[in-house]
């Protein structure tokens, strides 16, 4: 149980796909203009990541090592297509907002990386938790970026006005340059935070 | 003619691939540490986008549409492009070893990359004709090359600057890209 929690939780902060591993940055910048878009993208990626890890792990003994990458890609593309069809049917507006970035989940480095590094070597349950944890970390990062951008750039969160009408929205945060600047500072902040965690762990280790 | 010119300039500057559409960021930040590598990468990406757009246009209009299986577009395009790039790599390695030495590694990096997949998808989404698809592909590739070469030149200068410790590396690269993007933003509104 503890092992599973460890597998799950490493994706949240210490190995956060966006801030620390710097994988799959395109969507983190492109679809985070509002919280809703960021959340939908995050959940889609979480679903694809966990489902693909399960598929890869289930078939890990059947797949010839030499052709594994095309097989992974096919599996990912199939799951992404499922998500696309589902969103198109039940949330057509969101589907339109996410647009091309939804198809591009197929080539997110993080999904292929988890299949290769983790799922192809571990059994189903740990693989699921690895994908789920990484997906949660991804969603968390998307939410943080989406919330800051919507709040500063539009004065709202989830469409509700938070900062009042006197607030002059800083439009740049919704525009592309703001996304780059924000991520730059967030990467720096997460580096500081992880350094702090490591230091604390070291200090504790010495005491014990 | 005017139409095509506007489309080309639009793809290069106004809707710059990296700086306003955020595609190909992994390569953009990974390779732009080195100016020479950036030039090679820009050229490799441009040619792969151009050729895969041709293939994608053919496959979509002559296979997927007649069979009514357009929902398979994503799967088919990914496999098409990945296998095409692998093939290209083999051919270049066999017949043009000098070029392979310059480009080889980049080709493999491009194989499953969002830039190369995105352009054919955008072409289809916008209902471009064959000629327009080609112009858009060329423009997107050149736009990518311009952005990555600019970024590499900036980062070579950056090496001499004193950067706050937590921002070193990726952090400052993003902030610089932000300012670069801001300057490209000045072109918006030039073309609708």
From TrEMBL, chain A:
The complex is composed of six subunits: RnfA, RnfB, RnfC, RnfD, RnfE and RnfG. Belongs to the NqrDE/RnfAE family. One of its GO terms (molecular function) is oxidoreductase activity. Its EC number is 7.-.-.-. Signal peptide: none annotated. It is found in: Cell membrane; Endomembrane system. This is Ion-translocating oxidoreductase complex subunit E. Keywords: Cell membrane, Electron transport, Membrane, Oxidoreductase, Translocase, Transmembrane, Transmembrane helix, Transport. Its main location: membrane. It is an enzyme of class 7 (translocase). The chain crosses the membrane at residues 40-59, 71-92, 98-115, 127-146, 166-187. One of its GO terms (cellular component) is endomembrane system. Part of a membrane-bound complex that couples electron transfer with translocation of ions across the membrane. It comes from the Bacteria. HAMAP family: RsxE_RnfE (MF_00478). It is a multi-pass membrane protein. GO terms for biological process: electron transport chain. It comes from Candidatus Desulfosporosinus infrequens.
From TrEMBL, chain B:
The chain crosses the membrane at residues 6-31, 43-63, 69-91, 103-122, 134-154, 166-187. It comes from the Bacteria. GO terms for molecular function: oxidoreductase activity. InterPro entries: Ion_transpt_RnfA/RsxA, NqrDE/RnfAE, NqrDE/RnfAE_oxidrdctase. Its main location: membrane. One of its GO terms (biological process) is electron transport chain. It is a multi-pass membrane protein. One of its GO terms (cellular component) is plasma membrane. The complex is composed of six subunits: RnfA, RnfB, RnfC, RnfD, RnfE and RnfG. Belongs to the NqrDE/RnfAE family. This is Ion-translocating oxidoreductase complex subunit A. The gene is rnfA.
